[in-house]
């Protein structure tokens, strides 16, 4: 090759750059970890601490910490290469909580600082409880905090909610008695009782007791406080009247801010209590406070509720305990209170706005199905490419595709990004878009060869002229991803990260990677020609002749679709936008929808029941039950409890149920009985060996007396005194990661609760995202094409694509052909569709822009010529993307997967978008141009149509 024929200057430096990028991706994708295999077959992967002669401290990849007894270890390896990808909650299971934290009423307070302070407090509290891999993100625009708790079940989430929602405000108060001189206890109680009698249906938490304050001398206030539920259960006085009158003396104000430390302790009976120690500079004040009220009752008030009240027998200078009644505090309550008090108090009480829980088994099914559909889609794309580009062109295309996808996955690992179910869809979509970039290059090379250019010059020109179009088309899609990331949450953010990173890696691979491969191949003489198929030949279809018919047909179809959407809108809204509750429940046996509706009708009004296919392919056992906000207002917890009560024993059994804990008389251990239910039969010896690692097992009885089976009754004991919550956590931990993906059964596969106000905010954010995406594209096209009419034509066509696809969604969902609803994931798919659609239109517009200064023909003929020249690319790209999307759609229909709705929207959108590029966008551009020519003619030739500047070449 001649010295002046250089396709890539310093090609080996570029090879080094690609190699370094691959190494970085390898480091991001893989990680060396520690592996321990236990004698019962359990495999632990994570990081080990320093061992002693009995146990090995081990932090699992999931974040859970275990003390592994050395005699349980079968073998151990300190080096294990593992894929290091962080999975989202929709794949690994867990709970997402959304709280509103209103700014303080103080007008001088900074709302942003207040929200940051709340985030720090939440994180500190959850860290103290040992929750790992938590995600906490503030939303300053809505004064909200989104908390993601990986691996946390619905029951566990209840305990964490109590910690999060607690104000953490501790007060020490003296109870008013009948002998208090300044206030008559009996008279004040009678006054409060009259108010209670006059307002039937009151609850302790709904009462505002401040109007019943009595102000004494020296600004002392006597105020009623309610007893906590636990205090009412344990104390006869609290049961008799659930309120107590206390003294608030500004001169003796002792609160949680005066504490130096709180810690687990025991009372004089050996029951669980909470110890506290005062700050040194407040010890004397606390001593004076307690010493001046000897023989009176001091109440411990936490978050406005009296938790306990004990008689002061003597002065307490700096240290004391908070007792938990006759039975003491449950262990989990001690941990919760300590975490709350150590982290400090919140300025305002956080309000739960939404709660979503996804079971881990559903996540495993979603992963396997998503990966399988991705593998099949990828295989079809490979066959498609090799069939159309046989030989070296196809091989280089496949190599760059593999490079782009590998860099994408490695980049996700390197950045620590979370892979979500929509993210898997984003990877598959990125594969289709990477194919588009390679097709743009190869079609340009084919055109240059058809002009009689040498192979080298054809490749050189092909790359130079395709890069401009690739940049323009991918920039608009990247803009869509940025808007999704800015406005989205959870899985939508994950999809946006995948989309944006995929655009960058695919462009790197397609533009630089393939160019380097072609350069080396040409330099070394590995090929002298490139084979291309050109089934379309030199097409001369007059597409502009059908523009008017296309516009009219599109208008009619869009109006019909929007009409159906308007009719179906109320039913089409998902919980994301409407607010409300929903749960995916699983029955023991096949059941029809009518029977389920009858079962829940007694508890819920206007409930919607949707039959689903289970993850193992059996129909009639899985149902999605929805109650929208406004139809019936309730909390998420109440909804689930009512749902379980209405469906009764028709649901599969709880994995861990009927837990009965009996503490020993001396408090040295706890006996426990419980039942276990698994998703598939498990051998009795496996259950016994797992449980023996955490407890003394007296008996494991298989249902029906045969093993393996799915149900067992267990009886045993724990060496330490523990409450039922702690015991349940120990059992669940012991039975985690069973062989063959067996797990404890779960009648509620996932659940979602979103307040009505949050639904409105999410809907408004979705509309904002759509408007910003279209506006951003209009501005970008205006800048790149130097004429706003090109932007008008493209954005109107894109809006047409979105609206017509929305109409199709309404029609298919209305008649039950596809399980879809209007939610955040659907908005994400529409934004992606907008990005793809504008991509397609820019390819044609770029060719028109390029041809205008070169072709001396009327504008109409230039448009037709440009469409014909890019038709092979349009059909190739559209075909390859539709292959991938069709596989995704078929593989995920009926599996409660967000990919189902995403794939349908994109599949329909690709067809509509390809059609509109030719029969909507181009006719509109032609109409604008014709109108400009007429205006110029009517003004005596003084005005001329502005042509966009040609693309750089």
Q: Which descriptors apply to this entry?
A:
953 residues, six-stranded antiparallel beta sheet, 28 strands, 25 helices, eight-stranded antiparallel beta sheet, alpha+beta
Walk me through this protein's architecture.
By secondary structure, the chain is of the alpha+beta class. 50% of the residues lie in helices and 20% in strands. The protein has 25 helices and 28 strands. Strands 8-9-7-19-28-21-23-22 form an 8-stranded antiparallel β-sheet. A 6-stranded antiparallel β-sheet has the order 11-12-13-10-16-17. It has a 5-stranded antiparallel β-sheet with strand order 4-3-2-1-5. A hairpin with a 6-residue loop joins strand 2 and strand 3 (55-60). Helix 10 packs across helix 24, helix 12 (421-450) packs parallel to helix 14 (491-524) and helix 22 (788-814) packs antiparallel against helix 23. The longest helix is centred in the C-terminal third of the chain and has 41 residues, at 898-938. It is elongated, with a radius of gyration of 34 Å. The chain starts with 10 loop residues before the first helix and ends in a 15-residue tail after the last helix. Mean pLDDT is 78; it is low at 614-618 and 942-946.
